[in-house]
UniProtKB/TrEMBL annotation, chain B:
Protein's name in the database: ABC transporter ATP-binding protein
Keywords, alphabetical: ATP-binding, Nucleotide-binding, Transport
Regions annotated as coiled coil: none
Listed GO biological process terms: peptide transport; transmembrane transport
Entry similarity comment: Belongs to the ABC transporter superfamily.
A Pfam family of this chain: ABC_tran
PROSITE patterns: ABC_TRANSPORTER_1 (PS00211), ABC_TRANSPORTER_2 (PS50893)
Domain ABC transporter: 43-283
Naturally occurring in which organism (per UniProt): Oceanospirillum linum
UniProtKB/TrEMBL annotation, chain C:
Every ABC transporter domain range: 6-254
Top-level taxonomy: Bacteria, Pseudomonadati, Pseudomonadota, Gammaproteobacteria, Oceanospirillales
Protein's name in the database: ABC-type dipeptide transporter
The EC number(s) this enzyme carries: 7.4.2.9
Source organism: Oceanospirillum linum
Similarity comment: Belongs to the ABC transporter superfamily.
Membrane protein topology class: Peripheral membrane protein
Length: 324, 352, 330
């Protein structure tokens, strides 16, 4: 036979051509469980719908809720357009107390809520990942100090920290300045209050990855600690990061809504979903239920969908349940 | 038979085994297993005392690894053989003792100072399923050490070097775009070897590189390691529990038991005439294909825990020849008539 | 009538990509007190065979053809009640990892007593006496105190002894041991193997030893089966196979052992690796790795040729035998 030309390829014939990234993705466990899981498909579709709503709010919205010239106090508290007695064709979800189109306001509110949620989680993740990586990789005293710090942070509830910080800020710098900086403040407060969630999860998976031989191999190669942490360990801890991120974004949106509801969040001139719910609350007994209920439903569906996605991801990425 | 013997002697003559590449002197390694400071505090006799417990993994090991040889370290699980390998590679810092490479101390260097040694010393790991980063392609895995050690090389030079390393272990360079999980255990182990060879090392520590592989694949990988040794004039520190591999592969053998060296000899000498009672027991336990193997030597009891080491010779509790002296005095390595070294009072006194 | 007879067994796994046959056309018999070795590399199907004898194949696997006759009765026809009576009682199984058998939160005694009471109507005291007796049989020192310990308090070797004692509890007719010593050190392995041979001989128990280690098979068993890619490729008396292997794969496997080579020389390696079950080559599954390749090997599944007391699945057996004898004559 052609034994003399022992090229490596002829020795191991079972590996064929290199698959493309898309073929590889189609072979993955994630894709396979996604095409089987109806709940995940619906959740992702709805979530993408929200993202599109948020991204293209200025295009979709018939009115600009931030433009006072488009508001007419005469139009205030109009019910949704399907109410034949009072509803008007141009405001299909009705209007709020200032006469703003509710649909447009919800679109912009979703945009604000999602922005705050995602940015706050990015901040949490950045702090948490750095702290978790260092604590897990260095171990020893560094680990103890950083983790005790995280424990202290965790022992204050997010809401308590947020309320205290935001209330002090509002009181000392005045409502004017506060309204200008509300979004940044919310992101900072929610971001800083919840980083230990990430730090703990990352640390746990770093401890597991650190024991594997490829980390020893990287050390033997002479790679620096920072490179090992970010190039070798971090990519292998992405699964748990992804799982908690979905849940954390949902949590951050809820926190923002709660703070806005308590009057510590977004100002009425730039309402998020939370402040919209809050502003409608005063009118709920005068019959204007839609100002509160419709943004409420929008918020609940968003959070529910994110949690369902998170659950699905957790099941898919859990190595204990993984059978492949 | 005579044919074989003459062949072997000429072979050993060719390898000049004189110059030490790596020197291990008085190596101790203990691991603290008593946890945090708070866990160490115990309440005893009305007082709070701080108590620490240690696993004594290595207890005073002296070894010279000579240029061009394959020094095999054998022993059962928990004997400290892997700890020796990891300490030599600087993955662990010794509790006491020194490690020198070509006469320069390397155990007290920091990461930066070690970098130039990392190029010369490489390691191959036991588990081919854990030793490759699952999120990196094969090409990325192999290119990384080359770029780290040759920062001024162009991308093309790096790629050529990697291709050369891949060819030398029999893997196709076109597989570079794939991830580790797409390969079988034997192929992954080849990739690990390629990673070690890519920086042109002169010394390789192999920590049980074939024990996770199937028999037919073991032979492939062992042959590959021998080819590499011949072509590149490599020196190996080969850690294994399998004595039949040692007989085939090793130039010299070091037998370890409970963190101490019991016997050190040229492979042929050791297999022809094992002196230490533990070596004898270990060798009699190899499952042989032949029908007429001698009855295996049964040891009494079990390996003691390395937390509370036995006094005297660590093997005395299980040794059929142990006497009072063995229980009290730690035996030192002595040179035997055959040229090997044994740490045993029985051999020293001529009892065994 | 043999104690156990496996006829034409086929086990399939239903995967996304279609049915995969993990075992094909497996035939063998086992007599009372006989020790049989199942040898093969990972993926050869030796563990699947062990599990299918107890009808323990879990989904998506199933026995898709053939029969497993225990004392002449097909296991497939048995009620779950009868099957339970056979599992653990008449046929017991020992795994590679003792912790698969031992429950970490129960003492050894509790587990042994529970096991005894599941199969027999017996008082606590009697069960404990039997348990101590079995622990004594597997040479565990001071069994009366050991019996009240938890599995984690024992060393690996001791745990495997306890598992063997549990396997022996019901005085079974067959013990299936799946790589029982792979996780243990060589000295312990030798002791445990010796113990198993002794116990099997004393109690007239048949043993099916699943292992990848030809040395162990050679030391322990009387009959051996070599498997490759889900098929038996050679079976016969152990000594005959070890001393005079017929199939090129068996020969290759043996020659690949370091103890068969001249020290310092290259080992005789088999090139390539075992095919995955989804991609078994047509014809003889071993053909891409075989040195004696002929046209027939890639086209036709080789049947079994009888050679001496062995059965070999290879087209080339006769030719190889001739070639082997020729140089001796010359």
């Amino acid at each position: 036979m052609t034994n003399q030309n022992q090229t490596p390829a002829s020795k191991m014939p079972e590996v064929e051509t290199v698959p493309t990234a898309w073929q590889r993705f189609k072979d993955t466990h994630i894709w396979n469980s996604f095409i089987k899981d109806r709940v995940a498909q619906i959740s992702l579709t709805i979530f993408m719908g929200y993202v599109i709503m948020a991204l293209f709010a200025p295009v979709i919205a018939p009115f600009d809720p931030y433009d006072p010239t488009q508001m007419d106090i005469m139009n205030s508290e109009l019910p949704p357009s399907w109410d034949e007695e009072m509803g008007e064709e141009q405001f299909w979800l009705g209007t709020d107390a200032q006469g703003r189109d509710l649909w447009s306001t919800i679109l912009y509110g979703t945009r604000i809520s999602l922005t705050i949620g995602i940015c706050a989680v990015l901040l949490q993740a950045t702090i948490g990942i750095i702290v978790g990586l260092i604590a897990g990789y260095r171990g020893g005293r560094v680990d103890s100090i950083l983790m005790r710090f995280a424990d202290v942070q965790l022992s204050f509830s997010t809401m308590m920290v947020a309320i205290v910080v935001l209330a002090i800020f509002q009181a000392s710098f005045g409502t004017e300045l506060y309204q200008d900086l509300a979004m940044v403040m919310l992101i900072l407060v929610i971001g800083i209050a919840e980083w230990p969630q990430y730090a703990r999860t990352i640390r746990a998976s770093v401890l597991a990855e650190k024991k594997k031989e490829y980390i020893d191999a990287a050390r033997v190669m002479g790679l620096g600690q920072i490179r090992i942490m970010f190039r070798h360990i971090l990519p292998n801890t992405l699964s748990p990061i992804l799982v908690i991120s979905t849940v954390q974004v949902a949590n951050a949106i809820i926190s923002e809504a709660s703070l806005s509801f308590l009057g510590l969040g977004m100002p009425v001139s730039q309402p998020s979903l939370g402040s919209l719910i809050s502003s409608g609350f005063e009118y709920i007994f005068s019959g204007a239920w839609w100002i509160t209920v419709i943004p409420g439903v929008v918020l609940v569906v968003l959070v529910l969908v994110m949690n369902l996605l998170g659950d699905w991801l957790r099941d898919v990425l859990n190595p204990k349940l993984y059978k492949g | 038979m005579t044919d074989q013997n003459t062949m072997k002697t000429t072979e050993t003559d060719q390898i000049q085994v004189s110059e030490s590449l790596v020197q291990i002197r008085g190596l101790y390694k203990k691991f603290n297993i008593s946890g945090d400071f708070l866990d160490q505090l115990k309440f005893k006799g009305g007082k709070i005392v701080r108590e620490q417990e240690f696993v004594h993994a290595i207890n005073g090991v002296d070894l010279d690894i000579k240029k061009g040889e394959a020094l095999c370290v054998v022993g059962e699980s928990g004997c400290g053989k892997s700890t020796v390998a990891r300490t030599v590679m600087g993955l662990l810092t010794p509790s006491a003792g020194t490690i020198s490479y070509r006469g320069e101390r390397i155990d007290d260097l920091d990461d930066k100072q070690l970098l130039s040694y990392r190029k010369k010393m490489q390691m191959i790991f036991q588990n081919p399923y854990a030793s490759l980063n699952p999120r990196m392609t094969i090409a990325q895995t192999l290119e990384e050490p080359v770029t780290v050690h040759n920062p001024d090389w162009t991308a093309r030079q790096v790629r050529d070097k990697v291709h050369e390393a891949m060819f030398s272990v029999g893997i196709d360079p076109s597989w570079g775009e794939r991830f580790a999980h797409e390969f079988s255990g034997g192929q992954r182990q080849r990739i690990s070897i390629a990673r070690a060879l890519a920086v042109d090392p002169e010394f390789i520590v192999a920590d049980e590189p074939i024990s996770a592989l199937d028999v037919s694949i073991q032979a492939q990988v062992l042959n590959l390691l021998m080819d590499a040794q011949e072509k590149r004039n490599l020196t190996y520190l080969f850690i294994t529990h399998d004595l039949s591999v040692v007989e085939h592969f090793g130039t010299r053998v070091a037998v370890m038991y409970l963190g101490s060296l019991c016997e050190l000899a040229a492979t042929k000498t050791l297999f022809a005439k094992p002196r230490h009672p533990y070596t004898q027991a270990l060798m009699s336990a190899i499952p042989r294909l032949e029908d007429d193997r001698p009855q295996h030597i049964k040891l009494q009891g079990e390996v003691p825990t390395p937390v509370n080491l036995p006094s005297g010779c660590v093997f005395h509790g299980r040794c059929p020849y142990a006497n009072e002296r063995c229980k009290q005095e730690i035996p030192q390595l002595i040179t035997t008539d055959e040229g090997g070294q044994v740490a045993c009072h029985g051999v020293a006194e001529g009892r065994i | 009538m043999p104690l156990l007879e496996v006829r034409n067994l086929e086990v399939s796994f239903g995967l996304r990509s279609g049915d995969v046959k993990a075992l094909r056309n497996v035939n063998f018999t086992l007599d009372r007190g006989e020790r049989l070795g199942l040898v093969g590399e990972s993926g050869a199907g030796k563990s699947v065979l062990g599990f299918s004898i107890l009808n323990l194949i879990s989904k998506p696997g199933r026995i898709s053809d053939g029969q497993i006759l225990f004392e002449g009765k097909d296991l497939a026809d048995m009620s779950p009640e009868e099957l339970r009576n056979i599992r653990g009682n008449r046929i017991s199984m020992i795994f590679q990892d003792p912790m698969m058998t031992l429950n970490p939160v129960l003492t050894i005694g509790q587990q042994m007593v529970e096991c005894l009471q599941a199969h027999r109507n017996i008082s606590n005291e009697n069960a404990r006496t039997i348990a101590v007796q079995k622990l004594q049989q597997v040479q565990i020192p001071s069994p009366e105190t050991r019996i009240d310990q938890y599995p984690h308090e024992l060393s690996g070797g001791m745990r495997q002894r306890v598992v063997i004692a549990i396997g022996l509890l019901m005085d079974p007719d067959i013990i299936i041991a799946d790589e029982p010593t792979t996780a243990l050190d060589v000295t312990i392995q030798a002791e445990i193997m010796e113990l198993m041979v002794e116990l099997c001989e004393r109690n007239n128990v048949a043993l099916i030893l699943i292992t990848h280690d030809l040395g162990v098979v050679s030391q322990v068993t009387q009959k051996a089966i070599v498997m490759y890619a889900g098929r038996i490729i050679e079976q016969g008396p152990t000594r005959e196979i070890i001393n005079d292997a017929q199939h090129p794969y068996t020969q290759g496997l043996m020659n690949a052992l370091p103890q068969m080579a001249i020290p310092g020389q290259r080992l005789n390696q088999i090139r390539g690796s075992m095919p995955s079950l989804q991609k078994i080559p047509t014809g003889c599954a071993f053909n891409p790795r075989c040195d004696y390749l002929r046209d027939a090997c890639t086209k036709q599944l080789p049947g079994y040729t009888v050679s001496g007391n062995c059965k070999v699945a290879c087209h080339m057996v006769a030719e190889l035998k001739q070639a082997e004898q020729a140089p001796h004559e010359a």
